[in-house]
């Protein structure tokens, strides 16, 4: 019988061979862009055979922190793949990660990884370990013990705290022999674009380029999240994406919530996340109901959204407005929310002012996005000044994911 799933392919199989098996079984369709992206991963798969950082056998040694051990052989170059949304970057990384016989490996969404880093730094500060050594080096040592082959999904840097930590963290990991594979929507040179104090982050970009083979997906690759959502190819947005924002859609969203809740009691609850409390205005079993402003208009981050995703399989969001650049902070939170919910397979049922692709229009200015009156913001001289920000670039991925999240196959 032919192989139908990645999990059925024997570990150690060459990634290209695994890809052809999946195509032959009809699990995926042949795509030249994906085949090209597998070439550097195939190279890395070969070069990792027999490789192991010299430090990996000494991580528990009491002498480790006294000096920095060098790998016994030069670490193979990792791979950094970037390109448009939905082209198959995660698929090729899935195949590589599964096929790699390396035991000390870790596959993680970059949001989750940085949350883990911040948590570890905080714990070491509380323990007073900063007095006896560099905290970031200590965290890097712990991360290396958890897996020296690091595979990141959605590598992006939009937070100054992450930007300032990442350079020294990667320096320590690479120095100790770690190998990185990453997928991203951005080229390394575009990371943290227009961010605060970006000049301090530029050495990190050069480090990534020196330690990874950079591969770009060919242009105009199809967005596979939009293919085959239904047998007839149509979208199911009309079922779970209620628009525009008016009394009728508000009632329709409420009816959907009550119908899904069924006979289960509707209650208010509070989720505990570290030292913070996340208020859930309405819940019924594994279903929760929020307004957009409750989720994205107040101070929340990835940790909050992960806690929600871990507690509820379906989330209703009422009143998603159209946003412009004066609402960039809300847009950033919304991007993070969708990333987290998508990774955790949370079902979304919403009311919104527009289709996903028209929700964030940063080139327009509007202090009251729900009202629908948008005006260009003019600078002196009557010209419209505009500079692309990271959240605008990242929102293309959000649109793709929102479309897929409303499809039948999701």
Question: Would you mind describing this structure in some detail?
Answer:
With 410 residues, the chain is α/β, with parallel strands linked by helices. The protein has two domains: 6-54 and 74-216, P-loop containing nucleotide triphosphate hydrolases (Rossmann fold, 3-Layer(aba) Sandwich), CATH 3.40.50.300; 224-364 and 382-406, no CATH class. The chain contains 13 helices and eleven strands. The chain has helices at residues 15-24, 32-47, 89-99, 110-126, 135-146, 160-175, 202-211, 237-240, 247-261, 292-296, 302-311, 328-343, 390-405, and strands spanning 78-82, 105-109, 149-153, 179-184, 212-216, 241-242, 267-273, 276-284, 287-291, 314-320, 347-352. Strands 6-11-10-9-8-7 form a six-stranded mixed sheet, with helices on both faces. Helix 6 (160-175) runs parallel beside helix 7 (202-211) and helix 11 (302-311) packs parallel to helix 12. It is globular, with a radius of gyration of 23 Å. 36% of the residues are buried. Mean pLDDT is 82; it is low at 57-72, 228-238 and 369-387.
């Amino acid at each position: 019988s032919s192989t139908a799933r990645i999990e059925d392919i024997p570990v150690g199989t060459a990634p290209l061979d695994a890809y052809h098996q999946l195509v032959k079984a009809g699990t995926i369709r042949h795509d030249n862009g994906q085949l090209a992206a597998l070439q550097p991963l195939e190279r890395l798969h070969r070069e990792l055979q027999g490789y192991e950082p010299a430090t990996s056998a000494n991580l528990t040694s009491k002498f480790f922190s006294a000096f920095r051990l060098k790998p016994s052989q030069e670490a193979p170059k990792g791979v950094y793949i970037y390109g448009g949304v939905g082209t198959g970057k995660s698929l090729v990384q899935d195949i590589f990660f599964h096929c790699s016989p390396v035991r000390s490996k870790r596959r993680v969404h970059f949001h989750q990884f940085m949350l883990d880093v911040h948590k570890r730094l905080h714990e070491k500060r509380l323990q007073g370990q900063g007095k006896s050594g560099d905290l970031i080096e200590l965290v890097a040592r712990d991360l290396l013990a958890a897996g020296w082959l690091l595979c990141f999904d959605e590598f992006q840097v939009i937070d100054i705290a992450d930007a300032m930590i990442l350079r020294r963290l990667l320096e320590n990991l690479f120095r100790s022999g770690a190998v990185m594979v990453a997928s991203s929507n951005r080229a390394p040179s575009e990371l943290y674009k227009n961010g605060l104090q970006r000049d301090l982050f530029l050495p990190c970009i050069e480090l990534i380029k020196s330690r990874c083979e950079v591969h770009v997906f060919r242009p105009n690759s199809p967005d596979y999240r939009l293919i085959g959502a239904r047998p007839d190819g149509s979208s199911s947005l009309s079922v779970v994406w209620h628009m525009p924002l008016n009394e009728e859609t508000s009632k329709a969203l409420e009816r959907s919530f009550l119908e899904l809740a069924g006979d289960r009691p509707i209650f208010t609850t509070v989720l505990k996340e570290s030292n913070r409390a996340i208020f859930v205005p309405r819940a019924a079993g594994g279903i929760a109901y929020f307004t957009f402003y409750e989720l994205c208009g107040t101070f929340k981050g990835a940790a909050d959204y992960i806690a929600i995703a871990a507690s509820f399989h379906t989330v209703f969001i009422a009143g998603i407005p159209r946003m412009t650049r004066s609402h960039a902070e809300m847009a950033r939170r919304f991007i993070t929310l969708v990333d987290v919910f998508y990774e955790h397979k949370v079902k979304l049922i919403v009311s919104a002012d527009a289709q996903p692709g028209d929700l964030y229009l940063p080139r327009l200015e509007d202090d009251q996005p729900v009202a629908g009156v948008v005006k260009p913001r003019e600078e002196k001289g009557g010209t419209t000044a505009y500079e692309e920000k990271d959240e605008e670039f990242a929102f293309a991925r959000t649109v793709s994911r929102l479309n897929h999240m409303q499809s039948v196959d999701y």
